[in-house]
Amino acid sequence: MPRTYVVRLMPAGVARVVVVCEAVAMTSFTTPDLSDELGGAARVVAAGFLDFGGREVFDGPVRTVRCLEDNSRVKELLATPGEGAVLVVDGAGSLTVALLGDMIAEGAVAQGWAGVVINGAVRDVEILRTLDIGVRALGSIPRRSDRQGRGEVDVPVTIGGARVEPGDHLYADATGILVTTPA
Ligand SMILES: O=C([O-])CC(=O)C(=O)O
């Protein structure tokens, strides 16, 4: 792991090396290790989610939205304090409209959300990748979604074959995504 070192000359002329920061944030988990350690208690989300965010590794307690081609609830929820949570959006796998774009994602960063995992599509991908938030989705498309106030918040959903409930904990890294239910 890359590190930044400062070399100070001590009075006796002896060089002392002090690690002052990690250039890459230390992560306390990997999804393969969690999968091995927890077995069936770690519900693994099927492969197929792509990384669109500026944070490759993220985790947090889960909030959920279920919606179909209408991101009203996504926009509303991500404009409220996230407190390190991960929003899991079950958009039924629809790839015809985007449920997240740069404006909503920038708001989510400002509100302290750790990540957004979308069983559906995003847009503004050039900007999403610059933002300090995890974003996973199935694909991208230019068309915005409808906003007719449809959708449900904090309901159990299933994405990538894994059941996800509000209050679960979601872990995502370069390998994949898994979900646990805290004891
Ligand atoms: O407004 C939307 O539905 C999605 C979008 O483009 C944004 O978040 O900037």
TrEMBL record:
Reactions this protein catalyses: oxaloacetate + H(+) = pyruvate + CO2; 4-hydroxy-4-methyl-2-oxoglutarate = 2 pyruvate
Pfam families for the chain: RraA-like
Top EC category: lyase
Keyword vocabulary terms for this entry: Lyase, Metal-binding
Gene3D superfamilies for this protein: Ribonuclease E inhibitor RraA/RraA-like (3.50.30.40)
Family: Belongs to the class II aldolase/RraA-like family.
NCBIfam families: NOT-MenG, PRK09372.1
Subunit comment: Homotrimer.
Protein name: 4-hydroxy-4-methyl-2-oxoglutarate aldolase
Species of provenance: Aeromicrobium alkaliterrae
Organism placement in taxonomy: Bacteria, Bacillati, Actinomycetota, Actinomycetes, Propionibacteriales
